[in-house]
Design brief:
The structure is a homodimer.
Chain A (H helix, E strand, L loop, with lengths): L14 H8 L3 H8 L7 H14 L5 H8 L4 E6 L7 H13 L4 E6 L4 H13 L4 E5 L17 E4 L9 E5 L1 H14 L5 E5 L5 H16 L10 E2 L4 H14 L5 E4 L2 H13 L9 E5 L3 H4 L7 E4 L2 H17 L7 E3 L2 E3 L9
Parallel strand pairs in A: 1-2, 1-3, 3-4, 4-5, 5-11, 6-7, 6-8, 8-9, 9-10
Antiparallel strand pairs in A: 10-12
Helix pairs in contact in A: 1-2, 1-3, 2-3, 5-12, 7-8, 9-10
The first copy, chain A, binds a DNA duplex through α2 and α4.
Amino acid sequence: MNAEPDVPAYRAPTLTDVAKLAGVSVATASKAINGRDEVKAATRERVLKAAELLSFAPNALAQGLLRGRTGTVGLLTSDLEGRFSIPILMGAEDASGAGQVSVFLCDARGDAIREVYHVRALLSRRVDGLIVVGSRTDPRPPLAGTIPVPVVYVYAPSANPDDISITVDNVGGGRLAVEHLLACGRRNIAHITGESSYKAARDRADGAVAALADVGLSMLGGKPYYGSWHETWGRAAAHIVVEQHPEVDAVFCGSDQIARGVLETLRDLGRDVPGAISVIGFDNWEAVAAHSRPRLTSIDMNLERLGAAASQHLFAAIDGGVPPTSEQFPGRVVMRDSTAPNR
Amino acid sequence: MNAEPDVPAYRAPTLTDVAKLAGVSVATASKAINGRDEVKAATRERVLKAAELLSFAPNALAQGLLRGRTGTVGLLTSDLEGRFSIPILMGAEDASGAGQVSVFLCDARGDAIREVYHVRALLSRRVDGLIVVGSRTDPRPPLAGTIPVPVVYVYAPSANPDDISITVDNVGGGRLAVEHLLACGRRNIAHITGESSYKAARDRADGAVAALADVGLSMLGGKPYYGSWHETWGRAAAHIVVEQHPEVDAVFCGSDQIARGVLETLRDLGRDVPGAISVIGFDNWEAVAAHSRPRLTSIDMNLERLGAAASQHLFAAIDGGVPPTSEQFPGRVVMRDSTAPNR
DNA sequence: CTGAAAGCGCTTACAG
DNA sequence: CTGAAAGCGCTTACAG
């Protein structure tokens, strides 16, 4: 049908091709290209020129076979779709990309079978290490079977404390949020958050409670308003809070989406934010936090940094220097317009 | 510091190990494992058992070297962060994962230099093909240099029409949106959309204009309200539209975020949606469309399907059967509560 | 400074 | 049915 072959029958040039063109042995060509100094300058010139001419790129498979190191890493995520995997993945990719490593991406879709399958494939490809990123902060079962390469768990820690897990400090995050609210002069603070089955929700609440206790306060209503992570719950819960505790002067929300809902209800109710009530979200999800009215102050958990750290720990483990350990990252408050009046 | 070595000095078992344990030659072991039928059943049994025992996984590097095919694909994205890459990537991963292929993920961060760098690395790793996903629908320059493997461009088409590009039909999407509004009985339709420098914005507008022309109508205001993709513009533009054209009974928004802004202003203005005014968004971004008040009807461009198609086309090109061609995918309207009264 | 040889882990004709 | 040999593309001692 088509005269032009769309798949070029083009064979990738090999070192042998380069050597032939340069009139040297493969051994010499190899040395020249790899910058070994036991090669005459003129020879190196010729080899390099030949390589250039053929657009020679050394076959990484052959190199990997020889070296016993492939310069590849497997990134196993359980939900690509989720907002949390991506920044982590970007951080990991960046930290790797700088060097010479390529990353295999696998999405197990939260399915254990698929995970096993992917791990097997990655091991077959002889990755130098594995990064496992989960979408919830609840501990997850460690990878099944004996894994002959280092593994680093990110966001979702491994249930095995001997494994290396890079996590986010949600307790600290909750504390940060409440401390910011206190700094804004607020004292009657409610906490509206997601499903209590999530460790993330419970941890953030614990941090909030602790920060309040530090100054002799407790949460409005005595405990968090657990519900769902969505806007809808934020809207509903805000109504409840205002009704039950008209003195409320701040709301710490477990997610930015909840905060959006809260903001909307407070507008409907004619309560001024941040004049009368401060609202702080969690996640610092740009798309929702930066364009609300008023723009939302939120806690950013530095997920990208988490990913970068995971890569660094993994490489440390691969290189076998100082044994890397688990690490927990603090968040930071990103202040916008919903927490303090701008005077 | 640590008695337990965290990096097992464990050497991955080879076919030789398996053969030795089973008491056969590597050749025979290979045949047994690969299901060749020139092996006695009992022998095969022994080999398989040995492989099992050692958790033997064939070295894919060696196999790739031999076969001249690695079963890997490079996925080159220009912005992981963007909401568009992910579903495409998921589709591609799924379509691949089913078989035996692993995908290398590279994010060029919109940087041409980085892109060249990644392509070089991928080629060095002897990927069987490349998928290039862009974040805008504007044509992009084709990959630089001679690429010895098939390449499929997704979302952002290659500027070279001879290349294979899998794209979204934005003109059709715009048409779909307006046709839905017309079906809801609306006639005074305004179009608020993103920056006119985006081909996506212009295409959607063109489709909308065409659908209106088909029934002898034109856009309210005579042309689209171009601005930005954000909520903020949606809020501002809605004010303008209502002021200039109080008869407005529908708004087609170029993005779900714009639509959120429009919804908010209409609420402030006391205009009932969908009673008095229908609002339709674009992208069907679950997080924003499904939780607004009212829930937002939107155009879904089936990005995941796009990714899957890209993979399929790529494999077709790799296998060298029927030459794959460019393809454009239609969208679909996902109806929620913002376009028609629920009676 | 250069090149012949061995070998990384596998598969595939080819003998036996 | 089984195994010795060659070879995929490279690198690295080891001679010369």
